[in-house]
Amino acid sequence: MTKLYLVRHGETEDNVRQILQGQSPGKLNANGIRQAEELRDRLRNEQIDAFVASDLHRAVQTCRIIAQPHHREVVETPLLRERDWGDFTGMYIPDLKDRKWPDNVERTDRMAARARNFLTWIRVTYPDQTVLAVGHGIINKVVQSIYYDKPIHEIPRMANAEVRVLML
Length: 168
Hints:
single chain; alpha/beta; five-stranded mixed sheet; about 35% helix; about 15% strand
């Protein structure tokens, strides 16, 4: 059985400013770096065989910090990218409340397909290993929605640098 530590990236400036980052790279702020370092220190003595991250900078940055004491490379994958918010990317989230979604926002079924592919890839690539994977708020909810076979709205929101354990 594969053990998956599913992590949300550390806090970014855009998180603080309530800017919809989507698939933009993002960068951890000082608090986000501290959050990643605290998680690194908590998991320092855990046996982790592989480190995987979304290929967006904020996730890779978080994962590299956590992986430091384990002396392992971080494998990047687009399967864990955040939702593509299309024309909403870069906008102030409170301003979007009653706005009609543009056609170029990634559909939920496309994210669900990515989440299924991610879980399959982890099972096949890392059988009977422990993997730490750093993703993003929405895609991590979708991964858990698939894993638990529950609607996405029933999955609690993950805080920055929060970790949840899934047994695959």
